[in-house]
Amino acid sequence: MSGSKMEGSSTPSVWRDPYEVLSVSRDSSDQEIKTAYRKLALKYHPDKNASNPEASELFKEVAYSYSILSDPEKRRQYDTVGFEVVSFLL
């Protein structure tokens, strides 16, 4: 595994820091992460952006980032090791 690409259709093709994707800091609370996710999910939802294929990819990236940061164990492992461990958990 190269560390820069992920396999599967439900994950983004390029790894980006989930904190950066959701525009939250590393010390953000669970509620701050959830609020940021909801805001971005609404913004990029495919039903609201049918004419913009890029929005669908951004929506997937936001959902993937939230799946890491919303799970305390995945978040802890990502903060400790990075994507190398998280990719095996998803």
Automatic annotation (TrEMBL):
Recorded superkingdom: Eukaryota
Domain J: residue ranges: 17-82
GO cellular component terms listed in the entry, alphabetical order: membrane
Localization: Membrane
UniProt keyword annotations, A-Z: Chaperone, Coiled coil, Membrane
Primary location recorded for the protein, binned into one broad class: membrane
UniProt cross-references to Pfam families, sorted A to Z: DnaJ (PF00226)
Protein name in the entry: J domain-containing protein
Organism: Ilex paraguariensis (yerba mate)
